[in-house]
Design goal:
40% of the residues lie in helices and 14% in strands. The chain is an alpha/beta fold. It has a single domain, classed as TIM Barrel. The strands form 5 sheets. The chain has an 8-stranded parallel beta barrel with strand order 1-2-3-4-5-7-13-14, surrounded by 5 helices. A two-stranded parallel ribbon has the order 6-8. Strands 9-10 form a two-stranded antiparallel sheet. Strand 11 and strand 12 form a beta hairpin. Helix 10 crosses helix 13 and helix 14 runs parallel beside helix 15. It starts with 5 loop residues before the first strand and ends with a helix. Keywords: Glycosidase, Hydrolase. InterPro entries: GH, GH_1_N_CS, Glyco_hydro_1, Glyco_hydro_1_AS.
C-alpha cells in the first residue's frame, strides 16, 4: 500500500448542501425531483414531467444543510482522522444558468471557505466538477449535453475552478460515473429524451461531447497547474456470467464492454475496437469534429476513480429469465450466492477485488476508490446511540478485499466511503437510506432538527484509520 494512501469519505453537493437558491445559485436537476414516495423514479426517467409538475416537497432544497454546517461537519470528519474528503462543486452555484458571461462570486467564495477548512485539518479535497449536476437552465435552453455547445460552457466553468482553486485542490474528477449517462440521461447529461427519438443516438452523442470536454479540461488543468491530477470516474462492478454456458459468458463480456467504453476513451485515448460494432447494432451515427480524435488521444487522465457497491450478473439461460435485482439504476440478474439490501444492491466484497484487478489490468493507471458503502435503515435508540454493526462488517470486508487487490499488484490512491454523513439518496430521495458514520436527524418527509450524532461506526472508522496510518 502507498505511503501516501488516502483514507476518508465522500459526499456530493446536490445531496448534502441544500441552500438550493441561496447566494445566487441556479436550479440543478436534483432540485426538481421529489422523494420516492412522491414519484421520484418517474421523474428521473421522465424529467419532462418533473419540469412541469409541483411536487410540494423536494429533498434537495434543504438536504442536510451542509452549506451552513460545513464547519461543524468537517470538524467531525477531522475527528475521525480523515486524510481526504471528496465533494463536488455545484455548477449552478458558480454559473447559475450554465452559460453566464461571468461567475457568481458568492458561490466561488463558499468553496474557498470549504477548501480552506479542509486544509486546516490536513484533509485533501477530492473534487468532482460535474456530479449529476448540469445546470437545469442548460437542459431547458440547449437540451443538455446533446448539444455540443455545452463543451464550451463546461470549459469556461473549469477554467474558473482551476484558476481559483488550483493551489487548494490537487485531485479532480471531470464527471461523476460517466457511464451512468446511458442509464439515467437526465442525471448524467441533463437531457430530456422524447419517446419518438433514438435514445442510444442521443446518449452516445452526448457522452462523446462529455469525453471531448473531459479531455480538454485535462489539457486546461495541466496548462494552469501541472501538479493537478485529473481523473475520470466509473460506476464500477464487474459483470459475472450466470454460468459456464458460453452464451452466458459472452453476455457478460458484452455487458462489461458497455461499462468500459467511456473509460477506454478517457484512459487510453481512443474509442475501443468494439465501439463501431456497438454503434452499428444500436443505429448510432456519431458526429465528430475533425480534431476530436487527436484531442482524446493527447489528453488522457492521470487516474481512474470509481464507485463500487456490487458486482452484476449477466446471462441468457432461459431458467434465469425474470430473476432480476434492481441494482440501483443498472439492472442485473439476481446472484443466488450473494446477500441483498432492501434497496436491491447485492453484497459482494470479493467482487471489489475482482473489479480492481480487472480495471488495473486493463488501464495500468492508479485506481481510486471514491465511493463504497452500505445504505441501511439505522435505528436511533432512546439513549441516542446507533449500533450499526452491519455497516462496520460491510466496510471491514470490502476494505480487506481492497487490500488484497493492492497485494495483487493494483496501484490504489485511496479509499473514500460514500455518504460519510447521512445525506439525501440520489436514487430514491430518501434520508432514511443512510450511509454515514454520522447520523442526521431528518426523515423522508423532511422533518427533524438536523442534529448530528455519532454512530458506532464513527468510532470504529476513527480507530481503523489510526491503526492503518501509524
Amino acid at each position: 500500500m502507498r505511503k501516501d494512501f488516502l483514507w476518508g469519505g465522500a459526499m456530493a453537493a446536490n445531496q448534502c448542501e441544500g441552500a438550493y437558491l441561496e447566494d445566487g445559485k441556479g436550479l440543478s436537476p436534483m432540485d426538481i425531483l421529489p422523494s420516492v414516495q412522491y414519484g421520484r423514479k418517474e421523474a428521473m426517467y421522465h424529467p419532462e414531467i418533473a419540469l412541469e409538475k409541483d411536487y410540494g416537497y423536494y429533498p434537495s432544497h434543504q438536504s442536510i444543510d451542509f452549506y451552513h454546517r460545513y464547519k461543524e461537519d468537517l470538524a467531525l470528519l477531522a475527528e475521525m482522522g480523515f486524510q481526504a474528503f471528496r465533494t463536488s462543486i455545484s455548477w449552478a452555484r458558480i454559473f447559475p444558468n450554465g452559460d453566464d458571461p461571468s461567475p457568481n462570486e458568492a458561490g466561488l467564495a463558499f468553496y474557498d471557505h470549504l477548501f480552506d477548512e479542509c486544509r486546516k485539518y490536513g484533509m485533501e479535497p477530492v473534487v468532482t466538477i460535474c456530479h449529476f449536476d448540469t445546470p437545469l437552465a442548460l437542459t431547458r435552453k440547449y437540451g443538455g449535453w446533446s448539444d455540443r455547445r455545452l463543451i464550451e460552457f463546461y470549459l469556461n466553468y473549469c477554467e474558473v475552478l482551476f484558476k481559483r482553486y488550483g493551489d487548494k485542490v490537487k485531485y479532480w474528477i471531470t464527471f461523476n460515473e460517466i457511464n451512468m449517462i446511458t442509464h439515467i440521461p437526465f442525471f448524467g447529461g441533463g437531457m430530456v429524451i422524447k419517446d419518438q427519438e433514438n435514445p442510444d443516438q442521443i446518449v452516445h452523442q452526448a457522452a462523446h461531447h462529455q469525453l471531448v470536454a473531459s479531455a480538454l479540461a485535462t489539457k486546461l488543468a495541466k496548462s494552469i497547474n501541472p501538479e493537478i491530477q485529473m481523473g475520470c470516474m466509473l460506476a464500477a462492478g464487474s459483470f459475472y456470467p450466470y454460468s459456464c454456458n458460453p452464451k452466458d459468458v459472452w453476455a457478460a463480456v458484452e455487458k462489461n464492454q458497455e461499462v468500459y467504453l467511456f473509460i477506454d476513451v478517457q484512459a487510453r485515448g481512443k474509442y475501443p475496437s468494439y465501439a463501431k460494432k456497438m454503434w452499428t447494432e444500436k443505429n448510432i451515427e456519431l458526429q465528430m469534429e475533425a480534431e476530436d480524435e487527436e484531442i482524446l488521444r493527447q489528453n488522457t487522465v492521470d487516474y481512474l476513480a470509481f464507485s463500487y457497491y456490487s458486482t452484476r450478473l449477466a446471462g441468457v439461460s432461459p431458467e434465469i429469465s425474470g430473476r432480476v435485482a434492481d441494482g440501483n439504476a443498472i439492472t442485473t440478474l439476481r446472484n443466488p450466492h450473494l446477500g441483498i439490501t432492501p434497496w436491491g444492491r447485492q453484497i459482494d466484497p470479493l467482487g471489489l477485488r475482482t473489479t480492481m484487478n480487472e480495471l488495473y489490468d486493463r488501464y495500468q493507471i492508479p485506481l481510486f476508490v471514491v465511493e463504497n458503502g452500505l445504505g441501511a435503515e439505522d435505528v436511533l435508540e432512546e439513549d441516542g446511540s446507533i449500533a450499526d454493526d452491519y455497516r462496520i462488517e460491510y466496510m471491514e470486508q470490502h476494505i480487506e478485499a481492497m487490500k488484497e487487490a493492492i497485494n495483487d499488484g493494483v496501484d490504489c490512491l485511496g479509499y473514500l466511503s460514500w455518504g460519510c454523513i447521512d445525506l439525501v439518496s440520489a436514487g430514491t430521495g430518501e434520508m432514511e437510506k443512510r450511509y454515514g458514520f454520522i447520523y442526521v436527524d431528518k426523515d423522508n418527509e423532511g422533518n427533524g432538527t438536523l442534529e448530528r450524532k455519532k454512530k458506532k461506526s464513527f468510532h470504529w472508522y476513527k480507530d481503523f484509520i489510526k491503526r492503518n496510518i501509524e
